Amino acid sequence: MSTNPPMRCGDAAPYLPTFADGELAEPMRSQVAEHVAGCANCAREVRRYRAIDQLVATLPKSSPSPVVLDRVLAATRRDAAEPAVRESLHGRRRPRARPLATRALPDFLTREVQGTNIRPLSRLARRPTGAARVLPVLAAVLLITLAILAFNRLPAAGIFPNANQSTTPRTAANVLAQTSQEVAAKATHLPFTPLLPRYLPAGAQLQNVYIDTSGVGAPFLQVSWILPYPLTVLHLRESSLMLLQRGDYLPDGPSRPDRTWSLGQYQWTSGASRIATGNAQHWAVGEDRSGALSITLDVGAQPDAAASDVSSAQDKATNVLRLTSLSIDAPYQPLTVQPPDTTQNVLHFVAREQTAQGLMTWEVYSDPTQHVQRVTAARNGATVYTDVVTASAALRLDPAARTYQSLPSAAVAGEPLALRDDAATFLLSVNSYLANGELWNMGLGKQGGARVYQLVLVGAPYPTEVYVDAGSRRVVGAEVNYSADFAPGTPSASSHLTPLSACPSYTLIQYLSPSDASIPADVFATQPPSKYAQSANMPATLGCSG
After folding, report:
1. Residue 4 lies in a domain
2. Of 46, 228, 386, 403, which residue is least crowded by CB atoms under 10 Å?
3. Closest Cα partner for 272 from 291, 259, 288?
């Protein structure tokens, strides 16, 4: 780690162009890299310089006109009043001025040009004047200036030829309205009613909207948006043909759990877009809908983005695909919530495990203020025993035999007395899952008589909902439906509430007020019921195998 004091933006600014080119020497390179890693503004400038380099690299390579050179030389015959200096790359103190080395003109300016009346510039080459010395610098400045002007005035046209040009950033809502207006003007030429997303990532700009008639059998609606770095473009294509009939998209079914999601009626699955061009990376999803309509979305990323960006381009592309595609199926409703109250509320959950002996379930009530849990263990729906567990002891009740036994608390080891760490973390981190579309706000509904926001886990192997109290905006529970005839994700998908090859999975999780009427009376009683007899012949513990 560097022992020098941290750089400020003003310190780093002179070195950013050279750093972006990869030509900055050590130790300055490491110091600038450390600053750029923690400064969003300077990181943005580095990306800007690299984009300028890419634009300059695409300019046609040609020799300057001798007439133009004559005029440039005539305008620069006077020597510069101050010597040009090189910026030192090995320290931050102001460098001592050092004149640039005198350079000779290139051969193509000094040799005779046969068969033309263009006069050679050998006379100028023999007398290296001040103008000749600064010519290379002047040419480089002119070239960079032209590239910067092109980059600022035409931010999309240099990369995407048909991009709509805009001098000021447009909000996602404005871009969506513009998209809707342009699609409506062309919808009369389509045999279906177009569907548009109700979400676009910040910084998106509409590129074009057109009807593509190059496909076989039916016209396509194509819409494309320019996306901020490290992504490049988002394509939407709609057709009256189903996905398997289309020649522009190759569906691969629900083989990719990370790109398979649903809100319950239609399912988006991963695939490959055959219209993606260039060397950019692409990710795509598609959906068949009733009413003879199929929809595909694909996102492109810069070829080197995955290595140069802090978070991978693939994750960003997947998030954009998920949020954009699901906003076609249901309105995008941003929501900020509070984590569950784990210190005062009673935790109630039902855990399960499918075994060779049948379905094992555990219904648990846990009071964090009293440090006591009650666990009712069952096999195939029949209660086997109930444990009341404190820090030092456990009371096991056999409801069938009406007997009890006092046990050390270690004897119930293996029972799911608390939520799995990943399940607890998931409920504490609901906002991050809402932000990337893994949880989708379906709006207000009712759960147990209370008004709640219903959040759907879009890629789970079983339909899964998280509930948020409408008044306090606090997470109050979650529920998994194992008997549903559809899955939002794939059978091989995993979620924090239904992990793969791990015990337990969860059916219900609730955070209840201690006065909630649904909590059974005397649920935490540590004394056996009056009609129970003590016995040493008690059922064995149903421990969770995971």
Report:
1. no
2. 228
3. 259
Q: Which residues of 279-303 are buried (b: 16+ CB within 10 A; e: fewer)?
A: ebbbbbbbbbbeeebbbbbbbbbbe
CA trace torsion 371, 376, 379, 382 (10° rounding): 180
Same domain, 379 and 448: yes
For tokens 């290595």, name the residue: 307
Same domain, 83 and 111: yes
Q: What is the pLDDT along the chain (546 residues), one digit of tens a residue?
A: 445 677 888 888 888 888 777 788 878 877 887 787 667 778 778 778 877 766 665 555 555 555 555 555 555 554 444 444 444 444 444 444 444 343 444 444 444 434 333 344 333 334 444 544 545 555 555 555 554 444 444 333 333 333 333 334 568 899 999 999 999 999 998 999 999 999 999 999 999 999 988 766 789 999 999 999 888 899 999 999 999 988 888 888 777 888 999 998 899 999 988 776 555 678 999 999 987 899 999 998 876 654 455 457 888 999 999 999 999 999 999 999 999 999 999 999 999 999 888 999 999 999 999 999 999 999 999 999 999 999 889 999 999 999 999 999 888 888 999 999 999 999 999 999 999 999 999 999 988 889 999 999 999 999 999 999 999 999 999 999 999 988 899 888 889 999 988 899 999 999 999 999 999 999 999 999 999 999 989 999 998 876
Dmax over Cα atoms in the chain, in whole Å? 121
Number of domains present in the structure of the chain:
4
Cα separation, 197 vs 184, whole angstroms: 14
What's at 229, amino acid-wise? Y
Q: Which of 426, 418, 399 is nearest to 538 (CA)?
A: 399
Distance CA 244, CA 286 (A): 10
CA distances from 158 to 47, 53, 58, 460 (A): 16, 12, 9, 41
Q: Are 331 and 504 a contacting pair, CB within 8 Å? A: no
Q: Which residues of 233-249 are buried (b: 16+ CB within 10 A; e: fewer)?
A: bbbbbbbbbebeebebb
Residue ranges making up the domain that contains 218: 172-329
pTM, two decimals, is: 0.68
3-state secondary structure 13-74: HHHHHHHHHCCCCCCHHHHHHHHHHHCHHHHHHHHHHHHHHHHHHHCCCCCCCHHHHHHHHH
The answer to whether residue 109 sits within a structural domain is yes
Are 233 and 273 in contact by the 8 Å Cβ rule? The answer is no
Are both 297 and 385 inside the same structural domain?
Answer: no
